Amino acid sequence: MDCRKCQTATATPAKPGDLLFLFSDFTRAGEGVNYPMIYNAANFIPSISISGFNGLSVTPLNFDNFNRIFSWKDDFSKLIGSHNLKAGILAMRSRKNQDNVPAINGTFAFATSATNTSGNALADAVLGDFYTYTEAGGFRQGWYRFTQIEPYVQDDWKVNSRLTVNLGLRWAYMQPQYSALQNTSAFLPAYYDPAKAPQLVSSTGAIVAGTGNPYDGLVLGGSGFPATATGRVPVAADPAVLALFHGLPYGAMNTDWNTWAPRFGFAYDLTGHSNTVLRGGAGVFYERIEGNFVFSAVNNPPFIQQSTVYNGSVDNPSGGTLQTFPATINNSHSLDMKDPRTLNWSLGVQQKLSKDLMLDVAYVGSSAASLAYQDDINQLQPGTTQANPGINVNALRPYRGYADIYQYITGANFIYNSLQAQLKKQMKGGGLFNVAYTWSKARTDANAYNFQPMNSYNLRGDWGPSNYNRPQVLVLSYVYPLPFWKTGREWYKVALGGWQISGVTTLQSGLPFNVAISSDVAGTGISNQRPNVIGDWHGPTRTQYLLPAAFGQPAAGTFGNLGAYAIPYPFFNNWDAAMQKSFRVTEQVHADFRAEFFNFPNHLSYTALSTTVGSSTFGQVSGATDPRTMEFALRLTF
């Protein structure tokens, strides 16, 4: 970097020393970069990537993101006989402004795939001959808003001295989040007209200039741009963009009104002596849809003004070959999204075994519906690329004129069932011993709000263990004051008495993970695919956890038979312990000493693997828990 604006000054005062002053100017003028730009939207130096080398990444503007939430809550309660009645309401208004800054400073990419390459990407960079140059015409801002109102009623009814019943009902109005500037778009298949799709060059997938409607199938929420969009949304007056308004709801998403959430619970003293208590309950809960489904929709056409030039020179970036390829819609959503719903239930018994020993055993379950995931609605059917050799993927897609179209849909499900047991023992002298055991199974077909199925036409093909499923978990915790030599002035009583030992031991099943193949064997245009399992996958050693010979490539045009998250990491265990002692140094000085040992047996549990079939390290352990760590602390109080 030519730091011609960096200055260094040295001064020699009375006492020897150096004074260093630095000033860095990362503008194009400050760094001597005088290449012309296409839109001239920023004066910062461009980003640079060179194939096979580390690149230079430049952020032209700081990310601006703030959220103001205005909330109002009111609760009312009244005792009427054996009923404790409650009612209330929660109202919220969210005002979140968030920038999205594209490559307004420009991005050069140097690679040997350029037609004007020297055969060496680094030499191309020295010569200034780029493969691609991308530049955007301005940054985008979303003014995201929503209103939420939740009234509720509840009755805690003490039926008699042994039975208490809890009844409740809640309803939630959750307005879908939208941009007040109406500058987020979505792709809705109902508005796509194949007759208006652009023509493509079959070998490259490039769009033939002057053909088709570039916004075919895109829609905007509302009925028009507000006055505040003038000067903030560059295309607010474009007739082709105004034609995307169809009177749809704000954000181009319907409101889910069916959000009734009843709750029921009870506690019953089986013996009347508080020794055995039966508890149970069930409830429905709703949550608003994750805001990220709309935050990045400002990057969709028609709001992104960006050009990509191929095979040119940095001296004249716009002089290269301007090619337009189908855009990827990374953030669309269906019109009829539902608010995610969770149903929780439990039934358990609490038994007092003695005055200081308690046993809890419960069945706990949960299910969820209308969970969000991202479907690629423009994915090819399996076998498409094999049946059409030499044809570019984009020329084969269902919605011609677009690349991948990632559509948020609320159609995924989740189920959890568990047996949970806990034994608590209070010991004399303040000690405590606790054992908790969980035997469970959690299954889902979408492990995140932006989960992308392997086959967008078969979400159920990804049904399997959730990525946080641990079938068995055993946790032991204890606090034990040593019972001997708590008092006395003899040196051995002072040194060895009065200590307290505590710790937590965790033994649990390993988390599940996915095994992947790196190529598009199924011929769908994307490569998030899994292999075939053809034998016992257990590796020969602890560090070679998977046996490579047990995995194979599926037949061309098909998916592998390995399920999602079907293989667990190795068994996990961790032992933490601590010792502490308080003692008096003098009449006015008190000391507390604590020694902590994390993973004190120094037993490593493996937490990461190489999971791509065909990799030279496939199946090998690549990460583990930290080794034994010891910490000592001494506190003096005076």
What's this entry about, in short?
By secondary structure, this protein is mainly beta. The protein contains five helices and 35 strands.
Shape: globular
Mean pLDDT: 91
Share of β-strand residues: 35-45%
* Low-pLDDT runs: 1-14
Question: Count of DSSP E strands?
Answer: 35
Which short descriptors sum up this protein?
single chain; 638 residues; mainly beta; 19-stranded mixed sheet; five-stranded mixed sheet; 5 helices; 43% strand; disordered N terminus
Architecture overview:
With 638 residues, the chain is mainly beta. It has a domain at 503-638. 4% of the residues lie in helices and 43% in strands. It is built from 5 helices and 35 strands. The protein has helices spanning 121-127, 239-242, 292-295, 384-387, 491-496; strands at 47-50, 65-80, 83-100, 107-110, 129-136, 140-158, 163-171, 173-174, 178-179, 185-187, 218-221, 245-248, 260-269, 276-286, 306-313, 321-322, 327-333, 341-354, 357-376, 402-426, 432-444, 464-465, 472-481, 499-508, 512-513, 516-517, 532-533, 551-552, 567-568, 572-584, 590-598, 606-609, 612-613, 621-624, 629-637. It has a 19-stranded mixed sheet that branches. Strands 1-4-5-15-16 form a 5-stranded mixed sheet. A hairpin with a 6-residue loop joins β13 (260-269) and β14. The model is unreliable at 1-14 (pLDDT under 50).
SSE diagram, text form:
Blueprint: E1 47-50, E2 65-80, E3 83-100, E4 107-110, H1 121-127, E5 129-136, E6 140-158, E7 163-171, E8 173-174, E9 178-179, E10 185-187, E11 218-221, H2 239-242, E12 245-248, E13 260-269, E14 276-286, H3 292-295, E15 306-313, E16 321-322, E17 327-333, E18 341-354, E19 357-376, H4 384-387, E20 402-426, E21 432-444, E22 464-465, E23 472-481, H5 491-496, E24 499-508, E25 512-513, E26 516-517, E27 532-533, E28 551-552, E29 567-568, E30 572-584, E31 590-598, E32 606-609, E33 612-613, E34 621-624, E35 629-637
Parallel strand pairs: 1-4, 11-12, 17-20, 26-33
Antiparallel strand pairs: 2-3, 3-6, 4-5, 5-15, 6-7, 6-8, 6-9, 7-13, 10-11, 13-14, 14-18, 15-16, 18-19, 19-20, 20-21, 21-22, 21-23, 23-24, 24-30, 25-29, 27-28, 30-31, 31-35, 32-34
